[in-house]
Amino acid sequence: MANSISEPPVILLVLLIIAGDLAIPYTGMISEIIKTIKNWGERMEIPEKLSSELKNVSGLKIRRNEPLASHTTMEVGGPADLFLQPMKSQAMTAVIDKLNSYQFPYFLLGGGSNVIAADRGIRGAVISTRKLQQIKIQGELATVEAGVLLSDFCQELAEAGLSGLEFASGIPGTLGGAIYMNAGAYGGEIKDCLQSAEVLTAEGWSQTLTAEELELEYRSSLLQQQNLIALSASFKLRKRPSSEIKAEIQGLKARRWASQPMDQPSAGSTFKRPPGHYAGSLIEESGLKGYRIGGAMVSSKHAGFIVNTGGATARDIIELMLEIKEKVYQKFGVRLKPEPRLIGEFDKLPY
Ligand SMILES: Cc1cc2nc3c(=O)[nH]c(=O)nc-3n(C[C@H](O)[C@H](O)[C@H](O)COP(=O)(O)OP(=O)(O)OC[C@H]3O[C@@H](n4cnc5c(N)ncnc54)[C@H](O)[C@@H]3O)c2cc1C
Q: Domain containing 215 — which CATH number?
């Protein structure tokens, strides 16, 4: 198939490789990335043998050309060539093994609440964790699979009278994504009560790592540096009356709804907190609240969020991010860094 879209400029390729916290679109080796980027704009052929081996994996849902707009909270994104949903962790392990053996690139997706997917979609496979849904509670230890939503987990913990994750109840992602990002809110972070996580290495080996070994820092973890996949995690919690936990969760929910655009599609905070500042305040003081490009707008409720007002494209969002970065840099000399992962093929990147 002929390339309908020109190859990315060399500079973009170099940027993709050198910038540590960039959204490199696939888990895999740099040679893979180069190979994939050379096929810019083309759907990836799925080897027939891989296709039939995947069909034989028990407990695996397979779709082709699945639109990512349906799987991301920003509600943008074109098709993934292959969309895989393991229903149990054994199927996840088998899928990684098969994709690795064919050097077929893949990207792991949880709740899609911290990603912006390209309009042209993703070449290769997207593996969704959303069907990994087990929760086990034993005393003050709770073990949860990667695809469980934080809100559901916190609800179960509240019922069981277990405290520690109340702060996370309103973060609209999965446990896997929360560990990958070391998600946090209202003074709490995942690292505060995570005991250990079972992970798969990029080569497909299973390991249990302690919270310390996971190197959880502000919106960063070992998972990001080493392309590890979280399968499940154990949390050390403490007893607290259910009614108190539920009341705290309700209070935090009300605070969130009062200050954040929860009723509009977004990917959460657009930029990381720069040292000594709040990104939202810098953006607001640059006069950008309500500023829009196409369907993407700086939220008029909280300038730290870009919202999809309906029909936004990923391109609108990237253009808006670039303009915000430029205006904030001109006014304050602060360089903002994107918080969401940018996945797939973009002409420009806001780094
Ligand atoms: C309205 C709104 C409010 C938000 N508020 C907050 C907040 O208060 N605090 C906060 O920290 N974040 C917040 N976020 C951002 C987001 O919800 C968190 O970063 C969340 O932890 C992402 O989880 P996810 O499952 O949606 O991950 P995804 O968006 O699906 O993925 C994010 C990254 O994690 C990786 N990943 C996902 N699952 C796994 C896994 N099992 N193993 C390895 N890697 C994995 C993906 O490959 C990707 O690189 C908010 C987002 C929205 C839309």
A: 3.30.465.10
